[in-house]
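Final paragraph of the annual report: two paired records, presented back to back.
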Amino acid sequence: MAAPVGPVKFWKPGTEGPGASVSEERQSPAESSGVTVIYNPYASLSIEQQRQKLPVFKLRNHILYLVENYQTLVIVGETGCGKSTQIPQYLAEAGWTAEGRVVGVTQPRRVAAVSVAGRVADERGAVLGHEVGYCIRFDDCTDPQATRIKVKHEQRVVILKGFTETPQVLLQN
């Protein structure tokens, strides 16, 4: 281990602190431009194959069984495991969206609500706003007659209040 070169200097309160001459850390142009970069290691696979690669796929039948047999189900999983994109589709495929019922998914951020809804619409081969839609502040991209999977950005308390007034399936991310 090398010894420090030159005399050791101590910082004294009231003087310029260590590292004061270092410039501020700046955001890269990609971060400040608002462009979202999505990493998908399975981009070369078909959408169906991509869906099957997600961790939640192995639990599909188990989740559907639990939803059918229990009044409340809490699902916890890692980011990117398919909670928000796959489980609503599993419920729709199993008939939970028949007779006008809607699967609701809450997202903590507006961008997440729009991107999740877009991904689900892509996977289902649907036009965004028809079968799959999103609802964020000042922008409701849903069709009341056709939307079966709705992704909302809203405070969870407001969402839960709405679902207690009109009981439907709710997924909370």
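The closing record of the year follows.
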Amino acid sequence: MVLDANRSNILCFQHYLLSLFSKIEKMSFAGVLADADVKAALAGCAAADSFSYKTFFKACGLAAKSHEEVKKAFFVIDQDQSGFIEEDELKLFLQTFGAGARELTAAETKAFLAAGDVDGDGMIGVDEFVTLVKA
């Protein structure tokens, strides 16, 4: 993507963001998950209140990956790089797998957090995430 498509020497913020997000998306799960599997997993939970983390992790192929590959996925989902996946990041969980994916509903987000937050601190740490994916 050319950032200055009209050669005005002015960077369009929208084009900059699109370029940035397309690069992030390509980097995020590249080499870890097959694009076709991710698309199928996203399609399987496109309707509101249809998300099941177990079904999603199996469909996208993450459940079959090594602990190290699951940890790599964790650090992509942990967008603020805090070392934890917080509730607001879980709400946007599907969007980390594909641009244009829907947000999780409040009920889906709370259920997902409850399933993964073993120690009750309101966040999912890397080890909790690996356990959740491999369950």
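The radius of gyration is 16 Å. This concludes the annual technical report; the extension proposal builds directly on these records.
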